[in-house]
Amino acid sequence: MKSNTLTIIKKEFARFFGDRQLLFTTVIMPGLLIYLIYSMMGNGIGKMVSEGAGDPVTLRVEHMPKSLEPILQSLDSAGVTVLPAAFTDADIKQLEDNDLNTLLVRFPNDFDQQVANYDPQSGELAPNIKIYYNSTNNASQRIYTVLENMLSGYESMMSNRFDVNRADTAEAQFDMASEESIGAMIWSKILPMMILIMLFSGMMAIAPSAIAGEKERGTIATLLVTPMKRNDLALGKIVSLSCIGILSGLSSFIGIVLSLPKMINLDNAGATFHYTPSDYVILLLVILSTVLIMSSVVSMLSALAKDVKNAGTMMVPGMLVVMVCGLIPMFQGNASTNFAAYLIPFYNSTEVMVGVFMHEAQWSMTIVCLCANVVYTAAAVWGLTRMFNSEKIMFSR
Amino acid sequence: MKEILRVEELCKTFKLSPKQQKIERTTQRYKTAVDHLSFNAYQGEIFGLLGPNGAGKTTTLRMLSTLIRPDSGDAIIDGSSVVNHPTDVRSKIAFLTSELKLEDFFTPNYIFDFFSKLHGVDERVMQERKQQMFSRFGIDKFAEVKVANLSTGMKQKLSLIVSLVHQPNIIIFDEPTNGLDVLTARTVTDYLQELRSEGKTIILSTHIFSLVERLCDRVGIIIDGRMISYGTLNEVCGDMNLEDRFFEIYKEQKGGEE
Fold first, then answer.
1. Which of A222, A240, A388 to mutate to test the interface with B (most CBs of B within 10 A)?
2. What value of ipTM does the predicted structure carry?
3. CATH annotation of A57-154
4. Element housing B30 (H / E)
5. Contact A225 B114 (CB under 8 A)
6. What pLDDT score does B258 carry?
7. Which of A334, B200, B208, B257 is 20 to 30 A distant from B4 in Cα terms?
8. Looking at domain B3-96+168-254, what is its CATH homologous superfamily?
């Protein structure tokens, strides 16, 4: 690398790493915030779901039928006290606020007889069991679900003709997808978008001040009167932005990966994250080449902008494009096998990442993607060089 | 004397935005800032460009420093064309204007090293020059203070030092004493004279008559982008003082309207 390019890179690093506030808000804070927020959300949701789920519950049953008595009494093992007792409308009203851990079940008076006499072909309404509960109470909701399933099972049993996927043994398995491939599918749908968004967010935090800020402060003209070649300046800006963007993106990425198991309630998420060294190399290369394109795009937008504020506004559509490219895996299965897909910037990176996470990455497609990204970056360096040469762009206020 | 700068028929026209048209109170879409301007400068002299605001002085100096490109014409600086070899020109000149700023975040020490590296100055030479220049301008005590915390005068002195890190033969200076307190202004003008005695050529623009009379060996009067008169002070003014001569020329050009 040319010495002037290195001098520019060092200066950008000195500017960035010397500013503790900028360093904190760009590198440390995103990862920390993401980890804290996602973990808190995950814990909160988990707590909300599990809270009170194990509390003792009373089930008051009116007109308990003989046929169902053993089944209902078996709920005792789930911490449910079953009391045969009549109840009134006032008791039902109590479930709203006070008697949250109680469920009221009302059977028709001669339930067994009515069921025995009922002809589904008659067109008459079937005998109805009413279960009063409070869905905001986890224990009440849980027992309601258990009870409903039990009664539905009893109903099916009475007219049983066939079963679907009945597990006759504990080892019975019908979904043949391995735990690893299910994990891979989840990662391939979530991570490409998150990686792209985090990298671009990092860029957006620093790129406006890198060139538009220099224009606004009048320091770019001081650089432009030196004998340094404009392409050295362009390359220096793009490379330094890329490095800082990677740091910022990495911080966010670590925050996500650490908090994701809590967020999606996957205790063994790590167990599904099995990739080969080749996968990691491809992932690293594609991230690096994507960062180069991103920093090229944001550098050009920053150069075009009149000031930092204007640069920030101009980068919003870029973020939308990146988000759309990242969202595509949500609606598709495996990575594309179409060669042309790997020539489209940002989208090509998404496809390669899907391939990696789905354990089906191909070096041929990866190389196409990398070459395309390098060509686009070279074109951007050329474009940025032209911009640095344009008095209209550099000095328009 | 060796001719070190030759400006030939330099022209520059700017397109006016609707906002600029409103400010300039004109309906014309284009404004000619510099109109077939020609002059030359010799080694070891201070050449002053004198003119009212908007006369085209700054645009001329920006073209000489290669920040903007002429529409037509050319300027040859120490054998290099501003149109065809701008990078060569940049290595031969120092350009200083109040529009050029230094990064507030860095210290004078860092900024001096940074620009020295961009100019390809050898590390040992750089340290010697830095020590000498910082001491000469009293910046050594503030070498590790961020530019943001320096006084305006100190910042201007630092800008001057930084523009000269590569010890160029030609120094282009737009309004050298603009916004400076009397002490700093004096330090700067004394230094320009010192540079001239070392054989450097200085092109400066100003609208301050006393500055031209005190410093310049030759002067060019620019009005509406055109060089109306140029030569030594005697050649331009005859037996008049510069201020009276300038207004006489100005009235001739403007048809006595001002």
1. A222
2. 0.86
3. 3.40.190
4. strand B30-42
5. no
6. 47
7. B208
8. P-loop containing nucleotide triphosphate hydrolases (3.40.50.300)
> Of A27, A33, A30, nearest to A246 (Cα)?
A27
Chain A interface mutation, best of B20, B59, B80, B103, highest count of A Cβ atoms under 10 Å:
B103
What is the distance between the terminal CA atoms of chain A, rounded to a whole angstrom? 33
Domain extents in chain B: 3-96+168-254
Chain CA centroid to CA A333, Å: 17
| Residue carrying the six token digits 């009870």 | A147
Q: Please give the interface size between A and B, counted as residue pairs whose CB atoms are below 8 Å apart.
A: 61
Which residue type does B70 have? P
A63 touching chain B per CB within 8 A: no
Cα torsion through A147, A152, A158, A162, rounded to 10: -130
Output the tens digit of pLDDT for each of chain B's 258 residues.
789 999 999 999 988 888 888 887 888 888 889 999 999 999 999 999 999 888 899 999 999 999 999 999 999 999 999 999 999 999 999 998 877 788 889 999 999 999 999 999 999 999 999 999 999 898 999 999 999 999 888 888 899 899 999 999 999 998 888 777 888 888 889 999 999 999 999 999 988 888 899 899 999 999 989 999 889 988 888 888 888 888 988 888 877 554
Q: What is the 3-state secondary structure (H, E, C) of A48-95?
A: HHHCCCCCCEEEEEECCCHHHHHHHHHHHHHCEEEEECCCCHHHHHHH
- For A223, the closest chain B residue by CA position comes to B115
Residue B100 to residue A395, Cβ atoms within 8 A:
no
Is 70 exceeded by the pLDDT of residue A350?
yes
In chain A, residues with a C-beta closer than 8 Å to the C-beta of B99 are 218, 221
- What distance, in Å, lies between the first and last C-alpha atoms of chain B? 39
Shortest Cα distance, chain B CAs vs residue A208, angstroms: 16
How far is residue B109's CA from residue B240's CA, in Å, rounded to a whole number? 47
DSSP run (H or E) holding A231: helix A230-263
| Chain A neighbors of B95, CB-CB under 8 A | 225
Query: Residue A267: what residue type?
Result: D
Of B90, B105, B120, nearest to A225 by CB-CB distance is: B90
When CB atoms are compared, the residue of A7, A225, A227 closest to B114 is A7
Q: Kind and range of the H or E element at B139? A: none
How confident is the model at residue A273, as a pLDDT? 62
**Residue in the block written with tokens 């080449």:** A289
Could you tell me the two tokens for A83?
């009391």
Choice between A189 and B145, residue whose per-residue pLDDT is larger = B145
Mind telling me how many Å the CA of A227 is from chain B's nearest CA?
A: 5
In chain A, residues under CATH classification 3.40.190 are: 57-154
Query: Is residue A267's pLDDT more than 60?
Result: no
Model confidence at A199, in pLDDT bands (50, 70, 90)?
confident
Say yes or no: A160 contacts chain B, CB-CB below 8 A: no
Chain B residue numbers touching A18 (CB-CB < 8 A): 105
Give the least confident one: A190-199, A290-299, B100-109, B131-140: A190-199
- For residue B10, the tally of other CB atoms under 10 A from its CB is 26
Q: Which of A226, A237, A395, A397 to mutate to test the interface with B (most CBs of B within 10 A)?
A: A226
Chain B residue with Cα closest to A219: B101
pLDDT at A154 over 50: yes
Q: Transcribe A97-124 into DSSP letters.
A: HT-TTEEEEE--TTHHHHHHH--GGG-P
